């Protein structure tokens, strides 16, 4: 009997991590042979230029995407032609789950930076997941996280004060960077302030003033798009308790 081929699990996991599929395979406890099945269906490293679209509204759900590097925004266009940013996607986060319900995309995914993406054909992913319970469970968790981010976005939009929306946005973004293994206190904003304004439902000038106020109060330090969160405790308070507490810094005056 011929020996089974030896699979280099460490190499496969490195490849998976490099193409940012760790959300799918690394936390799911997938074994070597099962990981190979996932590895086989991934179309690796498709280069995407800044401003390029992965899909548009009405496109069929053919694949889901994961950024190896770079970032994306998903945008909904109203009947009046107005743009609403409905989400941002960092490396390692799945893009394209908006089409799961109807089978067609309801928004477009636009590259915020030059990026490389892994393209995963959805029908093949579904087939492999049906054979691998651990992958199927992980996929359901990721879908749940996507729904959670949508709910968080709605939670931001109902906040009355612009400062609360901005603080909650920065706090949530920091946590997402932490979740993908990057610094939660020092990061570069891949999106413009205009994108942030469209995401938060605010005017561009309001967003700029909000960032300036947080910097003036020593909560953050901003240089261009580089952000340092200097007072995470205060940012958390502003994001979650602003309606219930008097501002700490005002009390120092």
From TrEMBL:
Residues 26-110 form the Cyclic nucleotide-binding domain. InterPro entries: cNMP-bd_dom, cNMP-bd_dom_sf, Env_Response_Regulators, HTH_CRP, RmlC-like_jellyroll, Tscrpt_reg_HTH_Crp-type_CS, WH-like_DNA-bd_sf, WH_DNA-bd_sf. The keyword Ribonucleoprotein does not apply. The gene is fnr. Residues 160-233 form the HTH crp-type domain. Homodimer. CDD domains: CAP_ED (cd00038), HTH_CRP (cd00092). It is found in: Cytoplasm. This is CRP-like protein Clp. It holds the Pfam family HTH_Crp_2. It comes from Lysobacter yangpyeongensis. It comes from the Bacteria. Keywords: Activator, Allosteric enzyme, c-di-GMP, DNA-binding, Repressor, Transcription, Transcription regulation, Virulence.
């Amino acid at each position: 009997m011929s020996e089974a081929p030896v699979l280099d699990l460490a190499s496969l996991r490195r490849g998976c991590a490099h193409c940012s599929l760790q959300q799918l395979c690394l936390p799911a406890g997938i074994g070597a042979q099962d990981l190979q099945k996932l590895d086989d269906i991934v179309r690796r490293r498709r280069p995407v230029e800044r401003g390029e679209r992965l899909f548009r509204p009405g496109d069929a759900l053919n694949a889901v995407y994961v950024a190896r590097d770079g970032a994306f925004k998903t945008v909904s266009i109203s009947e009046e032609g107005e743009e609403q940013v409905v989400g941002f996607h960092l490396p390692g986060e799945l893009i394209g789950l908006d089409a799961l319900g109807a089978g067609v995309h309801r928004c477009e995914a636009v590259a915020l930076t030059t990026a490389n993406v892994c393209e995963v054909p959805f029908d093949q992913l579904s087939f492999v997941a049906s054979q691998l319970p651990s992958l199927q469970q992980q996929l359901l968790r990721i879908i749940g996280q996507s729904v959670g981010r949508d709910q968080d976005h709605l939670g931001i939009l109902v906040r009355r004060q612009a400062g609360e929306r901005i603080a909650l946005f920065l706090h949530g973004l920091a946590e997402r960077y932490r979740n993908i293994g990057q610094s939660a206190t020092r990061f570069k904003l891949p999106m413009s302030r205009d994108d942030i304004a469209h995401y938060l439902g605010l005017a561009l000038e309001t967003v700029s003033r909000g960032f300036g106020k947080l910097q003036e109060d020593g909560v953050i330090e901003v240089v261009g798009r580089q952000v340092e969160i200097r007072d995470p405790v205060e940012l958390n308070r502003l994001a979650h308790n602003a309606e219930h507490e008097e501002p700490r810094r005002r009390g120092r005056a």
